[in-house]
Amino acid sequence: MKSHKDLKVWKESMDLVILIYELMNKMPLEEQYGLTSQIRRAVVSVPSNIAEGAARKGAKEFCRFLDISLDSLSELETQIEIGIRLKYLSHVDEAMAKIFYRKKMLSSLIKSLS
Q1: What three-state secondary structure class fits 56?
Q2: Which of 7, 47, 70, 110 has fewest C-beta within 10 Å?
Q3: CATH pick for 4-113 out of 1.10.1200.10, 3.90.180.10, 1.20.1440.60, 3.30.565.10
Q4: Burial of 80 (0-12, 13-18, 19+ CB in 10 A)
């Protein structure tokens, strides 16, 4: 592998960041420093940890960072669900499907490295 940028899961996670940031533009302004901020941090954490892990030496360390990315996706999924329940968000089917797909990708990569 030349770089984390060569990984499909990193590329797809970067696309998810854009989608989620666009979704967050629909959140109420009063949530800018609350739920919106939490969601943005969670989604940015996904490709960031993939990149950091890819820079580490060895599969075991890489898997640790991939696990963190997987955790961030679960956190993101929960936070979006909170936004739905608070009636701040709707029409999130595409985002949730993309989150699920990235979770599958990460799980498969972790399994292949273990």
Answers
A1: coil
A2: 110
A3: 1.20.1440.60
A4: buried
Do the Cβ atoms of 16 and 42 come closer than 8 Å? no
d(CA 50, CA 38): 19
- 16-46: pLDDT as tens digits: 999 999 999 989 888 888 999 999 999 999 9
For residue 88, count other CB atoms closer than 10 A to its CB. Answer: 17
Is the pTM for the entire model greater than 0.90? yes
| 23 within 8 A of 95, measured Cβ to Cβ | yes
The two tokens of residue 40 are 């943005």
